[in-house]
């Protein structure tokens, strides 16, 4: 199975901060990477697919980059609604696998 | 609008069985690959199972292979997960999710249901 590793596990930030989350794959997944946002008690929501394509309705302050084994999710200016846990997921091959998650909390 | 609603969760003793269902609406269910993803309390996301459009092709995580069976009824727009020989490790929220379709999107999970809690405890 392809292992996905996110860093950091927890990130403390303030409104307006630029936030960066890294996701590394144990082998190349080309660009087959998705990012999800999950708020407490809610289902995950797909925000980025194919490493850098933003889902419709997702604010443009979110962006994704990377290919191969290293990927980055960036929030250009953190907003109050963005405090949540973010997961990466590879869909290069079965089984689909997720990173362990990065919790973005208020500093 | 697209909606996925899970049901069937609850408290069950170890080694017993439980069946989850997911009712789909607002889209062409028969045209979509479907999945189950779970989340243990306070933990991350774990893919559990996926099923093809016609139900003939099924995939399972190693952790549930041989114990769980996924199925679908396209006439009723329903996805099911039969869970046997449950252990405490199976405790968590179970989500059904539609697989994305289209260029670059196939293989993602969008949207997800609200989830249903399964608690395996004696």
Summarize the structure.
The complex is a heterodimer of chains A (107) and B (122). Chain A has 107 residues and is mostly beta strands. Chain A has strands at 4-7, 10-13, 19-25, 33-38, 45-49, 53-54, 62-67, 70-75, 85-90, 97-98, 102-106.
Structure description:
The complex is a heterodimer of chains A (107) and B (122). With 107 residues, chain A is mostly beta strands. Chain A contains no helices and eleven strands. Chain A has strands at residues 4-7, 10-13, 19-25, 33-38, 45-49, 53-54, 62-67, 70-75, 85-90, 97-98, 102-106. In chain A, strands 2, 4, 5, 6, 9, 10 and 11 form a seven-stranded mixed sheet that branches. In chain A, a hairpin with a 6-residue loop joins strand 4 and strand 5 (45-49). The model of chain A has no long low-confidence stretch (mean pLDDT 97). Chain B is an all-beta fold and 122 residues long. Helix content of chain B is 0%, strand content 50%. Chain B is built from no helices and eleven strands. Chain B has strands at 3-7, 10-12, 18-25, 34-39, 45-51, 58-60, 68-73, 78-83, 92-99, 109-112, 116-120. In chain B, strands 2, 4, 5, 6, 9, 10 and 11 form a seven-stranded mixed sheet that branches. In chain B, strand 7 (68-73) and strand 8 (78-83) form a beta hairpin. The model of chain B has no long low-confidence stretch (mean pLDDT 97). At the A-B interface, strand 4, strand 5 and strand 10 of A face strand 5 and strand 10 of B.
């Amino acid at each position: 199975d392809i292992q996905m590793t996110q860093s950091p596990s927890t990130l403390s930030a303030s409104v307006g901060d630029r936030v960066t989350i890294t996701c590394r794959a144990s082998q190349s997944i080309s660009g087959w990477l998705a990012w999800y946002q999950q708020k407490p008690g809610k289902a995950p929501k797909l925000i980025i697919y194919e490493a850098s394509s933003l889902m419709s309705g997702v604010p443009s302050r979110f962006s994704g980059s990377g290919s191969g084994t290293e990927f980055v999710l960036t929030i250009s200016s953190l907003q109050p609604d963005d405090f949540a846990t973010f997961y990466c997921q590879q869909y290069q091959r079965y089984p689909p696998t997720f990173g362990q998650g990065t919790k973005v909390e208020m500093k | 609008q697209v909606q996925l609603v899970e049901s069937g969760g609850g408290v069950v003793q170890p080694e017993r069985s439980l069946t989850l269902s997911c009712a789909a609406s607002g889209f062409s269910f028969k045209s979509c690959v479907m999945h189950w993803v779970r989340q243990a309390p306070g933990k991350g996301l774990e893919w559990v199972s996926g099923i093809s459009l016609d139900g003939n092709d099924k995939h399972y995580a190693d952790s549930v292979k041989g114990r769980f069976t996924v199925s679908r009824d396209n006439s009723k727009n329903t996805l099911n997960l039969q869970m046997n020989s449950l252990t405490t490790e199976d405790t968590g929220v179970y989500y059904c999710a539609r697989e994305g379709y289209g260029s670059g999107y196939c293989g993602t999970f969008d949207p997800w249901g609200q989830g249903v809690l399964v608690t395996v405890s004696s």
